[in-house]
Amino acid sequence: MKNLTHLDRLEAESLHIIREVAAECENPVMLYSVGKDSAVMLHLAMKAFYPSRPPFPLMHVDTTWKFREMIEFRDRKAKELGFDLLVHVNEDGVRDGVGPFSHGSAVHTDVMKTLALKQALDKYKFDAAFGGARRDEEKSRAKERIFSFRSAEHRWDPKRQRPEPWNVYNTRINQGESVRVFPLSNWTELDIWQYIRRENIEIVPLYFAAPRPVVNWNGVDIMVDDDRMPEELRSTAVTKSVRFRTLGCYPLTGAVESTAATLEDIIQEMLLTTTSERQGRVIDADQSGSMEKKKQEGYF
Amino acid sequence: MRLNDDLIESDIAAYLEKHEHKSLLRFITCGSVDDGKSTLIGRLLYDAKMIFEDQLASLESDSKKVGTQGENIDFALLVDGLTAEREQGITIDVAYRFFATEKRKFIVADTPGHEQYTRNMATGASTADVAILMVDARKGILTQTRRHSFITSLLGIRKVVLAINKMDLINYSQQAYDDIVDDFYAFADELATDLEIQPIPMSALEGVNITSKSNETDWYDGPSLMDYLETVPVGDRRLNTPFRMPVQWVNRPNLDFRGFSGQIAAGTIQPGDRVKSMPSGKQSTVQRIVTATGDLEQAIAGQSVTITLDDEIDCSRGDVLVSAEDPSEVSDQFQARLLWMSETPLLPGRRYLLKMGAKTVTATVNAPKYGIDVNTLNDVPAKTLELNQIGVTTLSLDQAIPYDPYDVNREMGGFILIDRMTNDTVGLGLVDFALRRASNIHWQAMDVDRSALAEQKGQKPAVLWFTGLSGSGKSTIANALQKLLFAQGKHTFTLDGDNVRHGLNRDLGFTDADRVENIRRVANVARLMSDAGLITLVSFISPFRSERQMARNLMADGEFIEVYVDTPLSVAEDRDVKGLYKKARAGEIKNFTGIDSPYEPPRAPELRIDTVNNSPEEAAEVILGFMREKGLLNGG
């Protein structure tokens, strides 16, 4: 009899969590960010219900500043797998012309991401939303439950978390409250990459190194993805062999110089590298504890 | 990550292959405040080279700002994530950490030391294979250490590291170490007979005996902590127990496919195996074990699969597929150990939701038989359970469920209790055994049944439940109504709060727990009276919604009429017929409804009586009219 490996165990736990939500929640949704963790989560959802289809839609909160390749990938993937795909954009923000170049990362993220997510959850009255967050990403995540409860105002209260013994989850909520569910809680970045490799999961090509036009903005190399980037910045573009360790809004996602063109290359690079994954994200940089604050306010 | 493995550079594919087949160990660290848990985990991550350079940089700057180690790195800051924790210097919640060595992958639950977070520790312990109990060498075994060892053993952990930390502060004294070890063994003897204890002298701060043996303790011949963690066997004992799989979800993509999805809780399964669906006991044979990557020839405990059967037997979410040769038992009454996790104490007699596996049922939790003193492990008397208290109690469920004793299988015998109003998880329970009472006391079938008894009296039975504040006029109205019914030749009886408390309920006081029991008894008496064919008038304050709901559930459909005697507190207090409000305000009576004990008004009573604008006689006429309208005054 073969023993279960670490990845087998993580997979089995995630399938259990995903099924539990489908069985107990009225109106669940899977938040799809198009990144590698989302790709794994989507793959797990397909596995959890096979041969049935997952009984919930996908939702992408589109800040309108995502890489174009991400949007193409998103639309193709949803169609291939037969998912209903809901795309939500904060139209107020679009009308006010909110963007990272004009308003800075803080305002842009707050309006186009945090606020947009709340709008979307309220609009469709979802009582449960899957997210791809992992506990190893950041210190305040390490303490979050797999089923994380949010008040009707979408706030997280770290002191009122429910105990989660064994694999028994209390999914009950009061009117207006909702629950964020993190099936990848116990996965590490390395687990994700190994699983992508083992299961042959397709990910957005931006993760692989290729020659791309980049400019240096606020000390970080970012890619020129469209002409909304101010002309004076765009004119400084140079072509470098780069890849991305996380994917988000292109002006807020730092590129790393790399020649890693295969999964093995990426994993090798990751194992030998000396900076943690989130460093490429602009959000965390301002101050310690900033992620915890954002979470209390409703950032995913 | 600065892993020193040449394979990463030379042959990444080989490295990944090796890494993919590592085993997994989950462990928990617990102990008293300041014993150094967070420092230990920070040290393990640091020594396993799981800290990135940017994290190290922010750790160094944080150490100088808020650290407690002067210019040195404060490893605790690495794991004390929440802002509040950093400020207060304590670990509030359970945090999960991940690291790997050449031999194993580890998931660490770092759990709080404070007494008020014991429930979080139980959570961390519920999934752990090994417990690391931190002891401050200067202080020895404390109350907290005893409680934590008891809880980890209660939740089924049989491998314990007694980490005697801060040895540097007592000059690595062997004598002090031996004394603490002896102390612990004396205590642990009573915990569990099969406990395996590994004491290790260490200094998390100085890195002594963490990843390798140190010279400071040359008198110690055991393993370093890391040696122990990398080599302790993690045999999954669930594999050798009979097959169990709680059905999470019935998989029906189309009319031709019907599968049962779930995570296998125990044993192994193959196509062709005979299984039973519990609680129904219907048998069938496993046809296929379906997964997205192809059918399996065998599945084992821990895997999430979908099983199809040869026969169309009735099986739905919450049922359990079990080995037909060795099925689980089924019961609706249990004895269980209970850890209370809510600030609102257990209310014996109240109904809570019980979730075990994929099944949620309603359970009445009876008064504890006794509590357990975690210092002495002695039984102590307990009428209820407060936050973090452990006791032994019995539970009655509204339906029978399949189970195994917790000590045989965590998933099949561990449950949570959920408060039906707040939805909070309030208790954690471990099934010990089923009570035979339920199956042995059969209902005595009567030849002269309840409808015959009612018919004989020429009436339909009903229970009129008057609820409202003290002095609201419940008994006065009930009295007026009884006169009207009597005049019509109806057979009636009134159960009055004050009168019943002189006899049947003379042993009960006015605490919340006693009020619940008071109502439980009266509701059952009312039920017997309506079985006898009587129209029963119940006049009780009955302040809690859940107990009135319990009474309603006892009666046949349409026979329970909730009459809310809605008199504002100010009016009832002005009347003060019995002079009780005056005494309550003066503090002479405690737990008085409306003053220092809550009243939960009905949300949807059959009748609401306004006593400010209606006399008791008018109110009685209104109720009589309602009964007539509902056909309750017609012949039986």
UniProtKB/TrEMBL annotation, chain A:
Positions of the UniProt region annotated as Disordered: 281-300
Positions of the Phosphoadenosine phosphosulphate reductase domain: 27-254
Signal peptide: none
Keyword Nucleotide-binding: yes
Ranges in a coiled coil: none
Molecular function terms from GO: ATP binding; sulfate adenylyltransferase (ATP) activity
UniProt GO BP: sulfate assimilation
Family, similarity comment: Belongs to the PAPS reductase family. CysD subfamily.
Protein name: Sulfate adenylyltransferase subunit 2
Species name: hydrothermal vent metagenome
